[in-house]
């Protein structure tokens, strides 16, 4: 008899985006003449930049000739890509990360989920509430939790992030072994300062915990002094794994390339308290279960770090951030309390008069014909908030904001 992994039965149905889709389809069917503007989903809309496309083409051409054809690549990723990442993303910022600490993958979604496999199921996991849903769901799949009850899985430490704590979680009363942090944050669009991250690094060092730091939106940081990497914090090399992705940075959501950084010497412990290096475990996991990202994609990713690539990608990010600025100003003008949008492509809005996230969704859809994402879909502490994404095109962004300003 085939037995299923019963942890999957604990998972709540993927409710958020299907429910948004259902309500939007219903509205469109009833109002075929209305133009609906979508600012819900966190996906980019601008094409790959020219320098990336050129490298991508060249990679394909190399695959087309016997002399330059490539079969399986190194499981950890090609050295040419790991080296430009180490230099540009880390060493140039004074961070001691080498190419050998970097593992190329096809996405941070996979990496943040897969990483759980190298840690035992007796780890207590802390996650922010609200946050990117992948951390909680993969924690459940891996068997580290009990059942679900009123927005929470038993066994996960939820750390509320609201305007009261500036969207930076307080140190939890129960001590976690693994701590997921995501800055710039999805969905709140907020960032963490060096001082705030230092508090977490010190806490992890004291408790021999590991911080799983998702920096998928690092490239959107515009303000001086905001750390781009957890490793800019003193002591973090001993207690943090960092996830980065080309998805939002360079429009790779459909191209697929990301990387995970595990510093040399980062330790976790066995049941007798003996320390073990984490990097060889991840290397073993990846080389057993993953055969690498395609060569043309890795060439395209490396081109992001060329001088022209950096310039072009920065222009695209500036485009999205200009959208975010327009949105933020319009929403403030319309009387909303607004967070994020300066160092991230998300605007996190507090609804007026304590309106629920879903009631606000219906109001914005029905009266302004604009689609956003209810904050409660990212966790119970997101109730009463709403996420607008800055990834729409400029004309639609402006039109959507005009309509929201005219809401009664
Ligand atoms: C979009 C996103 C990612 C990127 O995932 P990929 O699999 O690399 O596309 C990672 N983390 C967060 C919080 C995101 O929003």
UniProtKB/TrEMBL annotation:
Chain positions with N6-(pyridoxal phosphate)lysine modification: 248
Reaction equations catalysed: (2S,6S)-2,6-diaminopimelate + 2-oxoglutarate = (S)-2,3,4,5-tetrahydrodipicolinate + L-glutamate + H2O + H(+)
Domain Aminotransferase class I/classII large: residue ranges: 34-404
Transmembrane segments: none
Binding site for pyridoxal 5'-phosphate: 72, 108-109, 132, 186, 217, 245-247, 256, 291
Entry keywords, A to Z: Aminotransferase, Pyridoxal phosphate, Transferase
Domain of life: Bacteria
EC number annotated for this UniProt entry: 2.6.1.83
Cofactor: pyridoxal 5'-phosphate
Pfam families recorded: Aminotran_1_2
Signal peptide start-end: none
Alphabetical list of InterPro entries matching this protein: Aminotransferase_I/II_large, DapL/ALD1, PyrdxlP-dep_Trfase, PyrdxlP-dep_Trfase_major, PyrdxlP-dep_Trfase_small
Single GO MF annotation: L,L-diaminopimelate aminotransferase activity
Residues annotated to bind substrate: 15, 42, 109, 132, 186, 291, 387
One of the protein's GO biological processes: lysine biosynthetic process via diaminopimelate, diaminopimelate-aminotransferase pathway
Pathway: Amino-acid biosynthesis; L-lysine biosynthesis via DAP pathway; LL-2,6-diaminopimelate from (S)-tetrahydrodipicolinate (aminotransferase route): step 1/1
Family, per entry: Belongs to the class-I pyridoxal-phosphate-dependent aminotransferase family. LL-diaminopimelate aminotransferase subfamily.
Record's subunit section: Homodimer.
Function as written in the Swiss-Prot or TrEMBL entry: Involved in the synthesis of meso-diaminopimelate (m-DAP or DL-DAP), required for both lysine and peptidoglycan biosynthesis. Catalyzes the direct conversion of tetrahydrodipicolinate to LL-diaminopimelate.
Protein name, per record: LL-diaminopimelate aminotransferase
Annotated source species: Mariniphaga anaerophila
Lineage of source species: Bacteria, Pseudomonadati, Bacteroidota, Bacteroidia, Marinilabiliales
């Amino acid at each position: 008899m085939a037995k299923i992994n019963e942890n999957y039965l604990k998972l709540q149905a993927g409710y958020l985006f299907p429910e948004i889709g259902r309500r939007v389809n219903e509205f469109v069917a009833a109002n075929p003449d209305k133009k609906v503007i979508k600012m819900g989903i966190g996906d980019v809309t601008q094409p790959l930049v020219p320098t990336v496309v050129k490298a991508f083409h060249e990679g394909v051409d190399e695959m087309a000739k016997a002399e330059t054809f490539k079969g399986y690549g190194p499981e950890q990723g090609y050295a040419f890509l790991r080296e430009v990442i180490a230099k540009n993303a880390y060493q140039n910022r004074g961070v001691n990360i080498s190419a050998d600490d970097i593992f190329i993958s096809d996405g941070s979604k996979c990496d943040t989920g897969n990483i759980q496999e190298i840690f035992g199921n007796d780890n207590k996991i802390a996650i922010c509430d609200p946050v990117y849903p992948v951390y909680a769901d993969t924690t459940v799949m891996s068997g580290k939790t009990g059942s679900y009850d009123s927005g929470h899985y038993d066994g996960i430490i939820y750390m509320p992030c609201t305007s009261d704590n500036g969207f930076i979680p307080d140190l939890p009363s129960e001590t976690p072994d693994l701590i997921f942090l995501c800055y710039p944050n999805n969905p709140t669009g907020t960032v963490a300062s060096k001082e705030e991250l230092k508090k977490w690094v010190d806490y992890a060092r004291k408790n021999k915990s590991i911080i799983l730091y998702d920096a998928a939106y690092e490239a959107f940081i515009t303000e001086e002094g905001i750390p781009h990497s957890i490793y800019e914090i003193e002591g973090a090399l001993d207690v943090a794994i960092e996830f980065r992705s080309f998805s939002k940075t360079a429009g790779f959501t459909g191209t697929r390339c990301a990387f995970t950084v595990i510093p040399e010497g980062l330790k976790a412990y066995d049941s007798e308290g003996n320390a073990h290096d984490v990097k060889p475990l991840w290397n073993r996991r990846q080389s057993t279960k993953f055969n690498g990202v395609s060569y043309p994609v890795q060439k395209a990713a490396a081109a992001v770090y060329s001088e022209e690539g950096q310039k072009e990608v920065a222009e695209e990010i500036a485009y999205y951030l200009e959208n975010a600025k327009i949105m933020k100003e319009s929403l403030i003008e319309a009387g909303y309390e607004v967070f994020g949008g300066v160092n991230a492509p998300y605007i996190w809005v507090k609804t007026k008069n304590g309106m629920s996230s879903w009631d606000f969704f219906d109001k914005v859809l029905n009266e302004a014909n604009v689609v956003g994402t209810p904050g409660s879909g990212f966790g119970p502490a997101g109730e009463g908030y709403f996420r607008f994404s800055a990834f729409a095109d400029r004309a639609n962004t402006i039109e959507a904001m005009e309509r929201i300003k005219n809401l009664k």
